[in-house]
Amino acid sequence: MNNIAKRRRKTGEDPTIYGPTEGKKFADMFSAKELAETWVRPFRMFLTEPIVLTLSLLSGFSDALVFMFIQSFSLVYKQWDFNDYEVGLAFIAILVGYVIAWISFIPMIKRNIAERAAKPDDEKAQYESRLWWLLYTAPCLPIGLIGFAWTVQGPPMHWIGSSVFAAIIGIANYSIYMATIDYMICAYGPYSASATGGNGWARDFLAGVLTIPATPFFSNIGSRPLEYANTILFAIALVLVSAVYVIYFNGPKLRARSPFAQQLEEESKGNDKRRKSRMGSRNNSVMPDEKARENSV
Questions:
Q1: Interval 174-225: pLDDT, tens
Q2: Closest among 68, 112, 131 to 94, alpha carbons compared
Q3: Average pLDDT over residues 12-27
Q4: d(C-alpha 251, C-alpha 261), whole Å
Q5: Is the dihedral of CA 29, 30, 36, 39 positive or negative?
Q6: pTM of the full structure
Q7: Checking CA distances to 232, which of 26, 85, 162, 295 falls within 20 to 30 Å?
Q8: Nearest to 141 by CA among 69, 92, 217, 220
Q9: Which of 51-60, 142-151, 284-293 shows the highest mean pLDDT?
């Protein structure tokens, strides 16, 4: 960034711009205070920013499900006498869900780019539109869980039913990660690393913590532990997924209460004013020459 600033000053494009560390001593660039603030900020944003907290919990819970499946699949598919190799192959269903979700995002990304270009001054188009496809794919998480819960009874029911719902959970897992990260990067700009850092911490923490009690959880709840355990996960997912709709329809209000998002918005407006000012000064510098040519004619 320092080199870019120097190049823009040299070309005259922006003679007043400077890089973030130009003129600073090495000790000032890596002060203990700044390092501490950088380290603490992801946790602070996770706890104080409703958008980061909600989307991180949703993403973390969805990610933890995949790790819990590692424990539950052996319990589920032993009812159909699957060996270890066959249980491993059952995870292909989740991979299929990932591929389907990935393909579905290609036209959605093109749609979003076109919408943002057509509505440059529309906040919803610039920010919340990135969550639009998630309105339709996030419900795959509770749908997949409740469907999986009641297709794991073993024979005579076929095992393919549970695999279909595992693929649906895979669609939700990929979509939630993709859309929430994209939205937070846009909403928090220079603070996006801290926002997504909170998201990553939630995923890793929940995945690590929930893996430990997974086997007892799927083994000891009532007379039908597999069904009841997954139904509990369905209820939790239903609550978390509802937050996507709250953020999509109320995102501007939530961002208005965020000091990080507001600072980014003010900086963006300041950049727009400076850009317009530079364009105006360039136009003024061209006008005398044009008038001179007109007078000479």
A1: 999 999 999 988 888 878 888 888 888 888 888 888 888 888 989 998 889 9
A2: 68
A3: 78
A4: 11
A5: positive
A6: 0.78
A7: 85
A8: 69
A9: 142-151
Mean pLDDT of the chain: 83
For residues 85 and 19, which has the higher predicted lDDT (pLDDT)? 85
41/195 Cα distance (integer angstroms): 8
Whole-angstrom Cα distance, residue 30 to residue 252?
35
- Give the chain as a 3 state SS string: CHHHHHHHHHHCCCCCCCCCCCCCCHHHHCCHHHHHHHHHHHHHHHHHCHHHHHHHHHHHHHHHHHHHHHHHHHHHHHHHCCCHHHHHHCCHHHHHHHHHHHHHHHHHHHHHHHHHHHCCCCHHHHCHHHHCCHHHHCCHHHHHHHHHHCCCCCCCCCCHHHHHHHHHHHHHHHHHHHHHHHHHHHHHHHHHHHHHHHHHHHHHHHHHHHHCCHHHHCCCCCCCHHHHHHHHHHHHHHHHHHHHHHHHHHHHHHHHCCHHHHHHHHHHHHHHHHHHHHHHHHHHHHHHHHHHHHHHC
| Cα Rg of the chain, angstroms | 26
Q: Residue 55, Cβ neighbours under 10 Å: how many?
A: 29
pLDDT, tens digit, 9 for 90 and up, residues 225-265:
999 999 999 998 898 899 899 989 988 888 877 777 666 66
pLDDT band at 110 (very low <50, low <70, confident <90, very high): very high
Measured between alpha carbons, how far is 149 from 6 in angstroms, rounded to an integer? 60
Q: Is the dihedral of CA 252, 257, 261, 267 positive or negative?
A: positive
Residue for token pair 């990932």: 98
Residue 136 is predicted with a pLDDT of: 95
On the question of a cis peptide bond just before residue 156, with omega within 30 degrees of 0, the verdict is yes
Nearest to 52, CA basis, from 277, 229, 252, 254: 254
Residue 200: both structure tokens together: 């990553």
